């Protein structure tokens, strides 16, 4: 009987210890929760969407002004698997893009089955919209059927747009915004500005000559015959 009581006591003590450890681990490791509420600890790293531009560069209008349609033709080679750009060219997986610049979004190619995300977008293919579309088609029109991730280089986007504009025309290029004047710290004073000659500064030869021309005191002459009587 004594051995039975001892065994029962050890079993009971082990159960109490196990229960305590389970409670502690649940509080520390959230083992008692099937999920962790958002924002309870840690932080979320938001990755940039694929194809999105990652740096701040010159205004896009400046890139268009400095860009090259010939360079855009080379970049457009990535698009030829789905698009043609020749006048009267057939639609492929994507619509023919001849003369697309300046037309209404989602209705340029008659008879092409645009996605509702694009056909219902509204607006026109101006330079801002085309730049946003080429940056990330899914970001511009969520639900588009276009699977292309986008062009991360702003220079490439500008060149492709110039190439499309060369094939069928388009709106006038946007004006490049004027650069604001830079305030240079420590800029020298202009002519006639700033303090004049400071005390103790060297005097140049012209000033010295002018000073010599001023009336000077003449020491009193003593007669040679004056005997001092």
Give the class from helix and strand content and strand pairing. Answer: mainly alpha
| Unreliable stretches | 33-54
Main sheet attributes: strand count, strand direction, barrel closure:
none
Counting DSSP H or I runs of 4 or more residues, the number of helices is 8
Radius of gyration: 42 Å
Overall helicity: 25-40%
Distance from first to last alpha carbon: 154 Å
Mean pLDDT: 75
Beta-strand segment tally = 0
Mass-distribution shape: elongated
Give helix and strand order, one letter per element, not per position: HHHHHHHH
Strand percent estimate? under 5%
Describe the structure in your own words:
The chain has 229 residues and is mainly α. The chain is 35% helix and 0% strand. The chain has eight helices and no strands.
